[in-house]
Design brief:
CATH topology: Cytidine Deaminase, domain 2
Strand content: 25-35%
Shape: globular
Helix content: 10-25%
Distance between the termini: 25 Å
Mean pLDDT: 89
CATH class: Alpha Beta
Radius of gyration: 14 Å
CATH superfamily: Cytidine Deaminase, domain 2
């Protein structure tokens, strides 16, 4: 079981998926950082990559410039939040990690979770049980978790 358990409300998850779909336009990857209180492990908001780095989606895959972390850390500091995970989309069914995903974690801290949503977030009813869940172990090592194990909870709040 991963070190980090997360919960997210169904309305917030749906809003996130809708936003990823909109930003990806069905033709390119999109992504976001999931923010919340690290003690409660509850995602309370998200911020899309292209809000922090306007050019991050330009090539079709995520290319996030390090300068995008400056506004991210500022937002976290001002709101008293932490980055709990990141999420990005892949085309097709595949929710595994690409070579660049493995080499360049969005947050290179052991225990950080990277979620991958298939079909560029264009499928209706995208739930957490159909995504890739990857835990960063440090030193470019990852562990992939089964999505049926209940580590992630969508609440009806």
């Amino acid at each position: 079981m991963p070190a980090t358990n997360l919960s997210i409300t169904k309305p917030l998850w749906k809003k996130l998926i809708k936003e990823l779909k909109k930003r990806g336009k069905g033709i390119r990857e999109s992504g976001a950082f999931l923010l919340g209180n690290s003690l409660k492990k509850e995602v309370t908001e998200f911020i899309c990559y292209d809000e922090l780095d306007p050019n991050s989606l330009d090539t079709g895959i995520i290319v996030f410039d390090g300068d995008g972390y400056i506004p991210l850390w500022k937002i976290c500091r001002e709101k008293g939040l932490q980055v709990l995970a990141d999420v990005h989309t892949h085309p097709g069914n595949w929710t595994g990690q690409s070579g660049p995903d493995k080499k360049h974690p969005m947050i290179a801290q052991a225990g950080h979770l990277a979620l991958i949503v298939p079909h560029l977030a264009t499928k209706r009813g995208q739930l957490l049980n159909n995504i890739g869940i990857h835990e960063y172990l440090g030193d470019k090592q990852w562990r992939t978790w089964e999505t049926v194990s209940g580590k992630f909870i969508i609440t009806d709040k």
